[in-house]
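User: Teach me something about this protein's shape.
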Amino acid sequence: MFKYILKRIGISILILLGVSVLLYTLLRCMPTDFVQNRIVALSQTTDAVSEEFIQKMYAAYGLDGSILEGYFRWIGNVLQGDFGTSFISSRPVVSEIFNADRIGTSFFVAAVATVFEFMIAIPLGITAATHQYSIRDYVVTVFVLIGISLPSFFFGQMLKNIFAYELGWFPVSGMKDAGMSYAPGSPEALMDYLRHMFLPILTVVVLSIGGRMRMTRTNMLEVLNADYIRTARAKGLKENKVIYKHAFRNTMIPIVTGLAGLIPSLFSGAMITESVFDLTGIGSYALNAMQQGDIPVIMTYNMFLAALAVLGVLLADLMYAVVDPRVKLA
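Assistant: First, the predicted structure itself:
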């Protein structure tokens, strides 16, 4: 096991290096960059911007020279523990990305939504598989299609229009009511925070359970048609025991595979959803950095998610041996 983990860590380092090269190259090849946006803004207030001033700006932001030179400059600083300074705020990238309030907001939304996703999607997937081609199965299938097809910005705005504007049950946007002063940690402050988080969490839950339900249903149908399930039924075992002890246990490996993407999703933030509801999360912050070409922030943010993704895949592989004793790690 220890040798296997060391081997996977070594491979993961190579993967992360490849991801960093590809990501940096793509960012430098974008049609516009941060300096160009600044020049456009300056040209609206001044008559002309000299070429010498433009070159000094590129040098100041480390965007002068070739892509290869810029990448080695970036990776050299990272190896020394320097992830750069945000172009937008002129503050260290690490303090900007790993801001407790910002990443805490995204983590709370993602964690709560994930819990409800599994609590809803897996039972519905099982009941759809055990009642194949019934009205129950068709209702679940329609729900799956809605969750998969609707874009987050449309569904989030629709929930906002219905429950915030029309009914007035929940706040329109933001993290707390303007003009209200609650003592930190008080029940009133907690309730106000939960009221603001309800619609974003509901948006993420509805749009994410579709894929999980479809995967659970498909895997359950494959297992229910297996010979050992027919044998278990022929022996007179109760249907609940056949389904939940024998069939569902063998659908755990695909579910564990889905957990590989769970870890980065907890910290990546729901970019569009956070923007729709004006949440100060890491997702909306990263989206703003991407739109303005803040390369240090984008690189650090995406490499952090890439590292979490690699870690998630490793943990999923290790979980295979726990879920299925037949799996041996080598």
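Now, about its shape. The mean pLDDT is 80. Residues 2-92 form one domain. If you'd like, I can walk through any region in more detail.
User: That's plenty for now, thanks!
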